[in-house]
Model the fold of this input.
Amino acid sequence: MMHSVLVANRGEIARRIFTTCRRRGLATVAVFSDADAGSPHVREADSAVRLPGVTPAETYLRGDLVIEAARRAGADAVHPGYGFLAENADFARAVQDAGLTWIGPSPSSIAAMASKVEAKRRMAAAGVPVLELLDPATITESELPVLVKASAGGGGRGMRIVRTLAELSDAVAAAAREAAAAFGDPGVFCERYLDSGHHIEVQVLADAHGTVWALGERECSLQRRHQKVIEEAPAPLVDRIGGDLRERLLAAGRDAAAAVGYTGAGTVEFLADDAGAFWFLEMNTRLQVEHPVTECVTGTDLVALQLDIAAGRPLTGPEPAMTGHAVEARLYAESPADDWRPQTGTVVTFDIPGVTARFERTSDGIRLDSGVEDGTEVGPHYDAMLAKLVAYAPTREAATRQLAAALCRARLHGVTTNRDLLVASLLHPEFLAGTAGTSFYTDHPPAALTAGTGPDPCLGALVAALSDAAHERGPLLPGVRSGFRNIPVGYRSRTYAAGDREIEVRYRFGRDGLEAPGTPGVTLVEATADAVVLDHDGIRRRWTVGRFDDRVVVDGPQGTVELRRLPRFTDPSAQPPAGALIAPMPGTVVRVDVQVGDIVTAGQPLLRLEAMKMEHVVHAPEAGTVAELPVRVGQQVAQDTPLAVLAADG
Done:
């Protein structure tokens, strides 16, 4: 019998597992790196054990340290969550050898599916359709495009699309580096790549008594860099095609689990086309990030069922069926329009209104599984996901619109997020029609999806200026506004930046109220340091305002505008030298592709940074000559560190 569970993970999945453990009366133990010392999952656990270091290789990938932490804290069971060591057969075996209960599938099942090459062979033998494996050394032009994939792990890491033979060797090397950093295994392979398809997966549960459940399917077709962004259940593709497609998918999921003697929770992933054909991709021998959508539509607690199976209890009753519809959006700290660049910083405000459940299923409404709270530091060492927001409703349209509305009303300050992209994706006609496939973000780039959405930045800047003025003046006589004079005066001026755009706000208060030449038709109703109410062309709207560092964030019914205050005068010494390329994020230099004196072309790779478990290429913005290379391989750099200096040609 289990009494205390150590979760060998961090962030939202650790908090999610703790929620069920507390309901079961089980004590909880967290592990944490130095970078995570102040994280919410550490505060919430009954006990927490430090893993010295900050990188995954020093901490969460050290199975020996995790097992020792369980011993020291008195835990008698280990739950791996997802990522890190969750699909490591050696770790699972070491947990069992230490006399601890392993809350997951058997080491032999993990090993059978850990090698995607071996997994495909087993699935083919079990009658599950598979995509042909390709040897990178023998791929021909006729077999392109191909997908390079890490043999171990998942989550989009160690994956590259290759469309020309000239790209193949670099893609294999980059995928191997990324896989080694994320999973400790550099092995990769190739398979045929379908430019547009549908990512369908089946949630399976199997006990030690021979029962295998398939708890419906999910569709996870909206992906960036092969990482899922929006997931839902049931799959709209399956509903649209109908016939026996669902039965065939669920049967294939059960067959896959049975073929390796599986026990516990797992996910069998397929690639499907619009005709209803599907092929096995891989089996994730763990809980999935998107498991909440299945919990919502089946009324189950998958973590509780994992605990039951690990304790030797059988699955009882009928196989759960799906009712209603659930849609999940992953909220990332990233800038989608800037090649999905991860972002770091401090989460100043994290407020999502209308949440009806946290870390557990909801009968109707919004569920939030979050790894961050106000004050959480988002660093470069781990995945960029901040939270998952899930809407559950009787129909797909109701769930989708409810989720989009909750995201739109959220107040998210301190780090750049993909929130606007999520809203635009959910409300896109192709998604609403249920026809969006894996090429969605190729066909609809983030910048195009979000163009023209959200509030007018000029109006947001006026709100910021009025709020800043109220913040600076403090309390005045009742009814007296900032800038009031009993004689005519000139306009006050404040300048903000919205992205790369500079916005000068000019305003003054006359006898007839607010005068703002840049935004005609605006009447000020009320302005405080925290909120501004404007009447714009007869429509009254309220805006809330938050500020941190040099930023002002304006949240309104149409969305959010984040602005940066611009000083009147700039210190020239604070500017980077001409031609300097600076680090877009903190990270580690893993490769330098050029040398000082090299002549480069626009778009040519100069060097590569590893951050948030992904590799990011720094390209030359224009043609020129490499004048300086102040960094080296293995060097950790802070954001805005100069990486290279290019001298322009001519």
User: Anything to note?
Assistant: The first helix runs from residue 11 to 23. The chain has a mean pLDDT of 92.
